[in-house]
Design a protein that fits this description.
The radius of gyration is 36 Å and the shape is extended. With about 625 residues, it is mainly beta. The chain has six domains: about 40-160, Sandwich (Immunoglobulin-like); about 170-255, Immunoglobulin-like (Sandwich); about 265-350, Immunoglobulin-like (Sandwich); about 360-440, Immunoglobulin-like; about 455-535, Immunoglobulin-like; about 550-620, no CATH class. It is built from three helices and 42 strands. Strands 2-8-7-4-5 form a five-stranded mixed β-sheet, with no helix packed on it. About 5% of the residues lie in helices and about 40% in strands. InterPro entries: BlueCu_1, BlueCu_1_BS, Cupredoxin, Ig-like_bact, Ig-like_fold, Ig-like_OmpL47-like. It comes from Promicromonospora iranensis. Pfam families: Big_3_2, Copper-bind.
């Protein structure tokens, strides 16, 4: 069977305009104002670009080139009227003409089923991929997904809560300034500002502050003003109903703790850019100058390039002329102290010649059967990239024919096996290696599996009175799928990334744990992620409470001369020998001694020579003979 290869749509310089493939008209249905497949977007107010009567609550979903996730989607909403916006366009990141739907689930148990919504959008359709629909949401959870075959993992949940009571009163916010003050009320050395906000109705949602007219920033903890000078601190708060308090202003003066400032500022510079093997900067170098003054504060920073006159430094300096350069710099504080002059010397060289060929990959899309064959037709999209001079052209050939320019996705609807070969050329004339993608097109048969598998997990082990597992909790995960069959089971313990589940999991770390799990079938459908919560009790265990603690390992009365150390769990090396077992013969016993001591050699507990000493002692002991 031929396999399809991972790919992306062509994107690169000088490749040519994309050509849109024929697309079906968008279908949007939304209760109570539902549209049918026979209606065009222009016939329904639900698809208007601007709806002046739209609900105050706007929920926006977007799509891009991905077939696994929506580009963005809301997680929560408030019960009541809402405007659903679904945009799948170049503006939202879809530059390959990929179609997506926004479909609300009306059959899966456990979700709200009162809203019927099925929007098909494409960047090249009549609406440019943007649609709106008016709905009335009820408290609960709605499940949405993309109904395009092969996009099964594009799904999510929208949790709708009861609308809160109308709150029209803004919160209040107060500022408390702390620190040592002089006779004039100025703060000596530093002032600490703490903000407190209150709201008796919907509650405080956020607190923000601005210093000296700067941008507002979120307040999370008291902040310190420790540079001498005058400060204007403006504060505001927002409640959960969206009411914003009137900004309040606090004036604060901070003076130096040491009296008169006689210390010059400290100033330094950093040079950044791409370096070649000799340490020269390729094409350009950027010089960033920073100054600090703990007394009166920095008043100005200046720089000079290659011995020229000093100029005010307001932003990083970019030097793009080839050759050696020197940037000198200095800073002056408010008290008039001038720093010592610093300098940075570096070399800029011209951009290196592009000798690297571009890369080109292919993506095959279409409805597939259980064997991976494409039902009716397949679409091949090419993506070329070049980090040097840029992509000049992309070409392809179908089933051994001559290469032809690639300008749009290739649709193959002839039944049978096919091979698409492709290559790309950059603006420097470098040509990529020829790549290929194999596929099989068959007649349209049964629709592919669109139902996710069912997964479950259980934990076993001895439990204490509080239900915590003593010493070890053993986790097993299972899944079943009546369609295409289970392809993969995954789990993630705590904050770890998901990994494949292949055998029972034993958790011995004491404390509370959360294990997430999911399953994927052979059609790519993924279950909702489940969570198994459990605890492992703290225990103090000694694997060998009646340990053999003689100083050397003695086997059947034969002293091996090897130190009898603890192996880490309360058991000594002699405990591992287990000479009391009814061994069938001496050879089996000697093999056992070698087996149990091999891990001790690997972790450095004993040497290979000491392992051999124990094996000889086991043989001389006659145990099992």
């Amino acid at each position: 069977m031929l396999r399809r290869k991972v790919s992306r749509l062509l994107a690169g310089a000088a490749v040519g305009a994309l050509v849109a493939l024929p697309l079906a008209p968008a279908v949007v249905t939304a209760a109570p104002a539902a549209l049918t497949a026979a209606q065009s977007p222009a016939q329904s107010p639900a698809l208007a670009a601007v709806d002046e009567t739209a609900a105050d609550q706007v929920l926006t979903f977007t799509g891009d080139n991905s077939v696994t996730d929506y580009a963005s989607a809301p997680e929560t909403a408030t019960a009541g009227p809402a405007t659903i916006v679904f945009e799948n366009s170049a503006a939202t990141g879809n530059n390959i003409g990929m179609s997506h739907t926004l479909t609300f689930d009306t059959s899966t148990p456990g979700y709200n089923h009162d809203v019927t919504l099925d929007i098909l959008a494409n960047p090249f359709d009549a609406n440019g991929g943007r649609y709106e629909a008016e709905v009335d949401l009820k408290p609960g959870t709605y499940r949405y997904f993309c109904a395009i075959p092969g996009h099964g993992t594009m799904a999510g949940e929208l949790v709708v809560t009861e609308a809160p009571a109308d709150d029209t009163t803004a919160p209040t916010v107060t500022a408390d300034v702390a620190g040592q003050q002089d006779a004039d009320g100025a703060y000596i050395g530093a002032a600490t500002v703490a903000l407190t906000a209150q709201d008796a109705e919907s509650g405080v949602a956020s607190v923000e502050y601005s210093v000296n007219g700067g941008a507002y920033q979120a307040y999370t903890e008291p902040f310190v003003l420790d540079q001498p000078g005058m400060y204007m601190v403006e504060t505001r708060a927002t409640d959960n109903a969206g009411n914003v308090s009137t900004p309040e202003m606090v004036h604060i003066e901070v003076v130096s703790a040491d009296g008169e400032d006689t210390t010059a500022p400290v100033v330094d510079a950093e040079v950044t850019g791409e370096l070649d093997s000799s340490g020269a900067y390729i094409a350009s170098a950027t010089v960033t100058v920073a100054a600090q003054d703990a007394g009166s504060g920095v008043a100005s920073v200046e720089y000079a390039l290659d011995g020229g006159a000093y100029a005010p430094y307001t932003e990083p300096v970019v030097v793009d002329t080839a050759g050696e350069h020197t940037v000198t710099y200095r800073a002056t504080d408010v008290a008039g102290n001038v720093s010592a002059e610093g300098s940075a010397t570096f070399t800029v060289v011209a951009q290196a010649e592009d000798t690297t060929a571009p890369t080109v990959t292919a993506e095959i899309t279409g409805s597939q059967d259980f064997d991976g064959y494409y039902r009716g037709s397949a679409t091949v999209q090419l993506l070329a990239e070049d980090t040097g001079s840029g992509v000049a052209s992309v070409e392809y050939a179908l089933d051994g024919e001559a290469f032809t320019p690639y300008t749009a996705p290739i649709t193959i609807d002839t039944l049978g096996e096919h091979t698409v070969t492709f290559r790309a050329t950059d603006n420097a004339g470098n040509v990529s290696e020829v790549g290929s993608a194999d596929l099989v097109v068959v007649e349209e048969g049964p629709a592919p599996d669109g139902t996710p598998p069912i997964a479950s997990a259980e934990v076993r082990g001895e439990q204490d009175a509080e239900g915590a597992y003593i010493g070890t909790a053993t986790i097993s995960i299972s899944a079943r799928d009546s369609g295409s069959g289970v392809a993969l089971i995954e789990y993630a313990l705590g904050d770890e990334a998901f990994r494949e589940f292949t055998a029972q999991i034993e958790v011995t770390e004491p404390g509370a744990h959360a294990l997430r799990y999911r399953a994927t079938d052979n059609a790519g459908n993924v279950t909702r992620t489940g969570t198994l919560r459990f605890s492992v009790a703290w225990t103090e265990t000694d694997a060998c409470p009646a340990s053999d603690e003689r100083p050397t390992v003695i086997i059947g009365g034969v002293d091996s001369k090897v130190a009898n150390v603890d192996t880490g769990n309360g058991c000594t090396i002699a405990d591992l020998v287990d000479e009391t077992w009814p061994w069938v013969d001496n050879g089996t016993f000697v093999a056992h001694v070698t087996e149990v001591t091999t891990p001790l050699v690997e972790d450095g507990t004993i040497t290979k020579k000491e392992q051999s000493q124990m094996a000889r002692a086991a043989k001389r002991s006659g145990i099992g003979g």
